Amino acid sequence: MSGRGTTSGPGARVQDEAQVPAFGLLGRLLPAGSVSRPMSLLERNVRAYRRAWLLLLSGFVEPVMYLFGLGIGLGSLVGDVTTDSGRQVPYAMFVAPALMAASAMNGAVFDSTFNVFFKLRYSRLYDSVLATPLGPRDVAVGEIGWALVRGSLYAGAFFVVMALAGLVRTPWALLALPSALLIGWAFASIGMAVTTWMRSWQDLDLVQLAVVPLFLFSATFYPVATYPDQVAWLVQLSPLYHGVALVRGLMLAEVGPGLLVHVGVLLGLGVLGVVVTERRLRRLLLR
User: Fold this and answer.
1) What is the Cα–Cα distance from 226 to 246, expressed in whole angstroms?
2) Paired residues of 90 in beta bridges
3) Which of 186, 257, 269, 282 shows the smallest number of beta carbons within 10 Å?
C-alpha cells in the first residue's frame, strides 16, 4: 500500500479534502516547514469538529459528575484527607486536581485511539494526506497535537468548574493548565503509538481495559499511603499518577523539586510516543 500514488473518482475527492487545510488560514499565517505542515492537519480536525462540538463534551462530563457526586457529596461524609505530604485538606480539594488530570487523559486518549484508528484503517485518510507535502512525522505531530488540544479543552473547562466551586485557592493553580497540556501530550503520543498496532475494532476494547484501572488506581481518590506497600509502588508506575501528583501539588501549593520528576516522566512519555508513532506510520503507509 502506497500513499504517494494518484487517485481518481471518489478517492480523488478524499485526497482533495485532505489537501485543503494545507492552504487554509494557518497554512497562510505560518511559514512553510515542520511547524506549518502539522498545523494544517490540526486545522482539518478543527474544521471537522466545528459542527460536532457536542461530541467534545463526552470526556468532560464524566469527571464533573465524579467531582460533584464523590468529591462534594461523599466528601461531606469523609471530611478532611491527609495528603502524602501530611497536610489536611477537604476531600473535594484532594479529588478535584486528580479529576482535572483525568479529563486531560480522557480527551487525549480517546481521540488518539478511536478516531485515529478509523482514519488509519477505514477511511484511509493518511494515504491521501501523504499525497500532499505532509509526511509521516507531520501526521504524527498533527494528530497528537489535535488530541492534546482536545484533552486541554476538557481540562480547561474542568478548571473553570473547580474555580466556580471555590476549589481554586492559590496562584500556583494557574500552572495546572500547562500541566494538563503536558498530560495530554503524554497520553496522546502513547495512545497513537499503540493504535498503530491495532487491527480491528475489538482491539480498541483494550483502551478501556487500560484507562479504567489508570483512572481508579492512580491516587485519584485516595492518597498513596492508603495502599498496601505491595501495591503502592505499582500505583506510582502509572503514567496518570504522575499527572495527578503534578496537578495536585500545584493546586494545593505543595510545590517542590519532586514535581520536576513528574514533569520529566510525562515529557519522556511524550517524546517516546512521537518517535514510535512516526516510525510505525512510515512502516504502515510507505511500504
Assistant:
1) 19
2) 80
3) 257
Total-model pTM: 0.80
Based on the number of CB atoms within 10 Å of its own CB, is 205 exposed (0-12), middle (13-18) or buried (19 or more)?
A: exposed
CA angle 268, 269, 272 (to 5 degrees): 85
DSSP of the chain: --SSS---THHHHHHHHHHGGGGSHHHHHSPTTTTHHHHHHHHHHHHHHTT-GGGGGHHHHHHHHHIIIIIIIIHHHH-EEE-TTS-EEEHHHHHHHHHHHHHHHHHHHHIIIIIHHHHHHTS-HHHHHTTTT--HHHHHHHHHHHHHHHHHHHHHHHHHHHHHTT---SGGGGGHHHHHHHHHHHHHHHHHHHHTT--SGGGGHHHHHHHHHHHHSSSSSS-GGGS-HHHHHHHTT-HHHHHHHHHHHHHTT--STHHHHHHHHHHHHHHHHHHHHHHHHHHHH--
The whole-number pLDDT of residue 53 equals 59
pLDDT band at 26 (very low <50, low <70, confident <90, very high): very low
Give the tens place of pLDDT for each residue, 177-200.
Answer: 999 999 999 999 999 999 999 988
Q: What is the 3-state secondary structure (H, E, C) of 242-280?
A: HHHHHHHHHHCCCCCCHHHHHHHHHHHHHHHHHHHHHHH
Cell of 104: 486531560
The predicted-structure confidence for 31-84, as pLDDT tens digits, reads as follows 444 566 777 777 877 777 766 656 556 656 777 777 777 777 777 777 788 888
Question: What sign results for the dihedral spanned by CA atoms 201, 206, 209, 214?
Answer: negative
Domain ranges of the chain: 10-285
What do you get for the CA distance between the two ends of the chain, in Å?
A: 6
